[in-house]
Amino acid sequence: MVTETQAVTRSAFHPEVESYEQVNRDAMRLLTRPGRGYLALLAMSVGLVGLLVFAELHNIIYGLGMIGDNWAVMITTFVFWVGIGHAGTLISAILYLFRAPWRQAIYRFAEAMTVFAVLTAALFPLLHIGRPWFFYWLLPLPSQRGIWPNFRSPLLWDVFAVTTYLTVSSVFFYIGLIPDIAAARDTTTDPMRKKVYGVLSLGWRGTDREWRHFTRAYLFLAALATPLVLSVHSVVSWDFAVSIVPGWHTTIFAPYFVAGAILSGVAMVVTIMVPVHRIFRLGAYFTPVHYDRLAKLLLLTSLIVGYAYGMEYFMAYYSGELYERDVFWDRVTGDYWWAGWSMITFNAIVPQLLWIKKIRMNLNAFFIISVFVNIGMWYERFVIIVPSLSHSYEPWKFWNLHMTWVDASLLLGSFGWFFMWFLLFLRYLPGLSIAEIKEVLPPPMKHQGPAHHQHDEAEMVAETLPTGYKEWEAR
Amino acid sequence: MSDGMKRRTFLKVLGASGAATATVGCSTREVEKLIPYTVPPEDIVPGVPTWYTSTCRECPAGCGIHVETHEGRVTKVEGNPEHPISHGNLCPRGQASVQGLYHPDRYRGPQLMEFGVDQPREVSWSQAERVVAEEIRRAPRGSVVFLTGGYTGTLGTLVDQFVGAIGARRVDWAPLEDAPRDLDFADADLLVSFGADFLETWGSPVDYAWQFARMHGYRNGRRGRFVWVGPHRPLTGLNSDLWIQTRPGTEALVAQALAGGADLNQVAQQTGPAEGAAERARALQTLQQWWGQSARRVAMGPGAAVQGPNSQALRAAMARLNGRAAPPPADARPLQQLVAAMNAGQVRVILMDASNPVHTVPGGLKFAEALRRVPVRVSFSGIPDETTKLATHILPQSHFLERWDDYVPRPGVFELVQPAMKPVFNTKAVGEIVLGIAAGLGIAPTAGGAPMTTWLDYLRAAWAGRAGTAEAWRAALKRGGVFPAGAPGTQGLGFTTQEQAAAQQPAGAGGTAAVAGTVGGAAAQPQPAQTPPPAAAPAPAAGSAAYQAPAYEGPQDGLHLVVYPSLRFFDGRTANRPWLLELPDPIAKVSWDSFVEIHPATAARLEIEQGDELELTSGPDRSVRARAYVWPGVMRDTVALQMGLGQEGGGRWTEGLGANPMKLLGSLDPATGAVNYAGMRVSVRKTGARNVTRAFPQGLVETGVRVQHDRRIAQAVGLTTLARLDQAGPGIIPGEDQHIEELKGAGGFVPEKVRTDPASSYPPPGTEYGEYVDGDTRWGMVIDLARCIGCGACQVACSAENNVPVVGPTEVRKGREMWWLRIERYFGVSRHPEEAMRDDATDDVRFLPMLCQHCGQAPCEPVCPVYAAYHTPDGLNGQVYNRCVGTRYCAQNCPWKVRVFNWFTYQFAEPLNWQLNPDVTVREKGVMEKCTFCVQRIHEAERAAASELRTVRDGEITPACVQTCPTEVFVFGNMSDRNSAVAQAARSNRGYRALGELNTHPAIVYLKKVTLHEPLNGGHDAAPAAQGGGTEHTPQGGQTQGGH
Question: How much is the average pLDDT of B853-862?
């Protein structure tokens, strides 16, 4: 029987996955079994979205004054979500181009997270402007007004960066999904779903020709998406770097923001992966290899970010600029010292624990660290935005943040919005990439190979077993 | 975080009250009919303002004004340039007078309270006058009292006639109207003010501020000196070069020491607590030295802040210093007698036209309690206040912008008040009301020998001697009255020359000196300050003029209390104007609240922190609560509290705001009968309500910080340094020219600027944002910090001109004030907030008007995604409201933080919206706005010039701030024209651009404040960058209070 064959040949990354069928089965299982917990989470998310709508209606009806101060919470949250969006494309596109075999199991989640994070981020430029009903004035639409947007404004670059990123990552996401949607179409018994999946799968039949075109298209899109990982957050950073606000006007911002984005994205991937892993019992797919690699990525970006922090302070000192020095000194000693220190601690210090293999391999510990990094990265944007604005050139106008329930609602609501999409995604689209996971599984053989062949396979497994795997097994 | 009250509070403060809209009277309906003029009024052209000349009656100064009306509605008030008092300028109160006109709280018409009914009944004027006349007829003879304010004109004559005819009594209540309004000190070398806050309320503030700027501003290498004597430093004191600290009641010692030569150390011991006696002695020495050095010197005062024990001795000593008698204080004893009479039931009818006596009479006199015993209480107040709350008959008077009146602020100046529009509500002038009541009584007051039935006829008849013919009357109306042309000042100089003082010495040696005597009765009539020959000065009772150990009322272990009138609210009469409520107090920069000034050391002793709520108690049932304002501008054993707030009359904005210090005051000064503003001690107790930051809805609304954090926003230069620089040459215009000059100085390559050939000019065309071509207009401004006194008139004028909304206390706490222009007040260039608490911190206070800098290379412009912020060819930073979507990036990127955002659609409660300038767009929520240099005025002038086929002349355009500034701080014009006044003014050794190092090419050149000593840290040469980020400190010293 086939099972026998598969019992012997196992993937180095997914030793517990026994067969192609199992992959199909597990992927489809996600689509069909919403538990009560899932529904509760979804209800909560939708509730938070309701809160967001409620809060925003206040902004629209009464005026933007319902929020606390200026750019504080909304822009912080915007940059936070744009940053989150970066890990997905990194994992799905860049690692694809580098042929990193550990991306297959997690990239779909990461990519979905990217799309939804960008979708969340895209809310805020709309919500934070004073007259959101005129948001389309930021778009270069030919109209009788005869006025083009100002192409020198970083905010306009932002509009282009975010919409480009949203478009490309959505297309990339969708193209990758096509074979899996077809699989879902073939598996599902629900006639409604069958119809929808049928349309979405674009009549995919899995022919050779289709696969050839698919892989080409995927490769090109990956190549197209790759520079976006660097460009989008660079552009977002220029929102700040192009200004003359002390603490913003630095050349380090683009690389610093990209590294920070990847740090926060990876952290968010872990924050999402661990519960999904636990709830849907995906241990066979999310293996120590993945966590280990993610941990190392997190550690690397954390080091880069830590270096950037240090560099910022050094440059502030070294430049001798009064305003620059004051702002940076204010970040760690002023009214927002708590935010400044949260940022440094959570982003640059806490992740250093991942040097220790035990912690890296401990799912709970890693999860907690990732949550800390998420908080820290929110604070990073907060620290960049709020203290700089509250302590810029004109002492008479030094001010402090005033957070209102509307700010809090918009922040919480953004999480609701994100998780709503993510939960719906889990329920309606294959979260595991069926096709790509199969790529790293040994193909099912019609006949069992000779004994030495088995031996070779076992050796191969032993050689490529990633770090920590044995410890994992031992537990 | 989420509190349900916020929206409600917001609506309460900002919102247009629906009720107000609904209840606006018949005049509104009349105006709202959209019927075009079939026969157009002669002097109204739609879209073109009509100007009327009149007189401001917000305070006793009586500034001549021009009133701008659009289609029959008053929109703005400006000074009358021909006028000897206003000099074309106006103070914040005058600018805000239009909000008094359109105040939504105003009475819509006469009201009567009937026995047993809670709600007043609205009646017609004839009915109201008949009822009052009937009450007077029924009253026993002698039981009718007319309580009046400071009448100086025809109304006084009429009231006297009326009172005489009905056998009533007239009592004056005008305690703050006793100061001379005719001093001329513009050429003085030394000014010593004994508590006279002449830049705020004392005498004639607009005129005195104008003279002060002449005397104290920098010109031709010199400037006069100004010394402030008093227990705390109000705005006038903050503008002084030297503060002689005196505990209330001991100022006389300083004046005596100056006149006589007492032991200064002993005086220093006596005038304050043991701490700081040495500093006080040094300061006294300096004062004495300056007094001796100065040829033209004058002692001004005494003002309310020193009106306490020994004020008679102070007056006597000042008379010796000046060689002329100090004016007597307003005598409040008649009012005291009136209270006694009311308590005794001897008053049946009281007619009240004084400024809210229930609020302004010292608590110790218990006026309100006595008033309740009068059966018929008639108030002529046009707006609800504490007095009308107790009134049985409310006969609301018209605002001065809608009535006929006249006023004589000082001898020789006769002013006319003419209505600039029909009354907004169903109101009448007091003269009209009095004539109406008189008619009801069958009396016809006569003027010029003939009985008069209307107030205008009466007035014209009274003016027959001055402007009898129709042409003369028209001319007087056009001019604003009858007064000598041109020159400021009046019959006498306010200062004595050294020769006069020398002649004075022997006469003064006796110890008791000239004083005009204790005049009772008609004290509220302004006393023309005469210059009696010293020998002829009447000798008063010796005891009253000699210095005695001061005796204070109140708890003997308490702190001294100083109650002083407010620049914004005067005695409270202007407290309900939203602009003035929102205008940060120039002293404390606190808006929408009262504040108790308390010294840092005392605060530390009592464990009081900034903004803690304090309860001041002067006796049983006499206590008020207000927030602490901790600062070194008040003596250690003294607290100071401003008049004005603590209104309980039901004003929609004032109710529940602040505290009324008059409640704390006790009895009158026995020697003069004046109100003892500084003779009380109070116990100070923390209530436990703590101050919180701006993030919370309670607490002291202090806007801005006090120190510059080493930034050189407001710069100063020492007089000697400046004189040295001025010897070398007139200086250059800071900015682009400066770079060229620096390059030249360094011997480097200098592309010569050739005016005729733009191709070779520097910087090359196209390299500068805006791409100015030489010869193009570049609007610019020069702001002279040596002249700015920090009053805030420009702020209010700007709001009036540009429809800038008021946001209310909650929003101010969040830093969302909408001012397009603000006055920043810094204590030197210090770095740490604690430095603002040092005893000498208030010695170098810099006021800096901050508005849009209209940068040539503006940071706000390129970041706007929709081109709402753009650059006009004439160098303005335009802001297109319609195009703005409200990303607020421009505001983030503005280093001066002068852009303000409409967080809400701010409301102008009906009928305040009548004041809106039709030439300026009213902005909605979500739109950024900022100073435009009054672009509507620029364009108006340009259109006018174009229609005459010429270019705009220099000086033709005056933005609202420039127009109103009492000290003429601003110069506006075309910077490209190097012969314009603005370019001439900018070419100065004092010139600098605020944050000029950011290379944004601001269009505003500031001229440094000129200090007598080299300013600490950050003076002319010090550059913050060179100081290594400002962590180091220039060693203190070199600037003590004394020494020269």
Answer: 90
Average pLDDT over residues B194-210: 92
Beta-strand pair B64-70/B73-79? antiparallel
Q: What CA–CA distance (Å, rounded) separates A393 from A71?
A: 17
Query: Residue type at A38?
Result: Y
Q: In angstroms, what separates the C-alpha of A120 from chain B's closest C-alpha?
A: 18
Contacts of B891 in chain A (CB under 8 A): 70
Query: Which of B73, B51, B87, B12 is closest to B964 using CA atoms?
Result: B87
Decide if B639 contacts B597 (C-beta within 8 A).
yes
Which residues lie across from B827 on neighbouring strands?
B845
The ipTM (two decimal places) reads: 0.88
Omega before B911 within 30 of 0, i.e. cis: yes
| Cα–Cα dist B272/A131, whole Å | 58
d(CA B854, CA A458): 76
Dihedral Cα B571, B577, B578, B580, nearest 10 deg: -50
Helices (H), B120-168: 125-138, 154-166
Closest CA to A171 of A208, A125, A220, A212: A220
Strand, coil or helix: A86: helix
**pLDDT above 90 coverage of chain B, percent:** 49
Place of tokens 């007040």: B825
| Partners of residue B703 in chain A, C-beta under 8 Å | 396
What integer is the mean pLDDT of B152-166? 91
Q: Mean pLDDT per segment of 10 residues, for chain A of length 475 residues?
A: 45 72 81 82 95 93 86 90 88 84 84 92 91 90 83 91 92 92 88 92 91 91 88 91 91 92 92 88 84 91 94 91 90 90 93 91 91 94 90 87 88 95 91 81 63 46 45 45
**pLDDT higher at B512 or B208:** B208
B510: Cβ–Cβ under 8 A, 6 or more apart, which residues?
none
Contact B973, B983 (CB under 8 A): yes
Run of H or E including B68: strand B64-70
Mean pLDDT for B512-537 is 35
Residue A221 corresponds to which tokens in the numbers above? 């899109």
Task: State which H helix or E strand residue B416 sits in.
Answer: strand B413-417
Is-contact B433 B441, C-beta < 8 A?
A: no
| Closest partner CB to A325 (pick from B708, B864, B1029) | B1029
Distance in Å, alpha carbon of B992 to nearest chain A alpha carbon:
16
**Closest CA–CA distance from residue B883 to any residue of chain A (Å):** 8
Contact (Cβ atoms closer than 8 angstroms) between residue B17 and residue B104: yes
Q: Among the residues of B759-848, which ranges form H helices? A: 793-802, 809-813
Nearest residue on chain B to A141, alpha-carbon basis? B866
A395–B995 CB contact, under 8 Å: no
Tell me: pLDDT of B933 over 80. Answer: yes
Instruction: Tell me, letter by letter, the H, E, C secondary structure of B959-977.
Output: CHHHHHCCCCCEEEEECCC
Which of B12, B13, B705, B814 would best serve as a mutation to test chain A binding (most A beta carbons within 10 A)?
Answer: B814
- CA gap B195, B271 in Å, rounded: 14
Give the tens place of pLDDT for each residue, B311-353: 888 888 888 888 887 778 888 899 999 999 999 999 999 999 9
pLDDT in tens, B236-275: 999 999 999 999 989 999 999 988 877 888 889 888 888 8
CB A4 within 8 A of CB A404: no
pLDDT of residue B741: 59
pLDDT at B24 over 70: no
Residues B925, B905 contacting (CB under 8 angstroms): yes
Nearest-CB residue to B1029 (from A70, A130, A320): A320
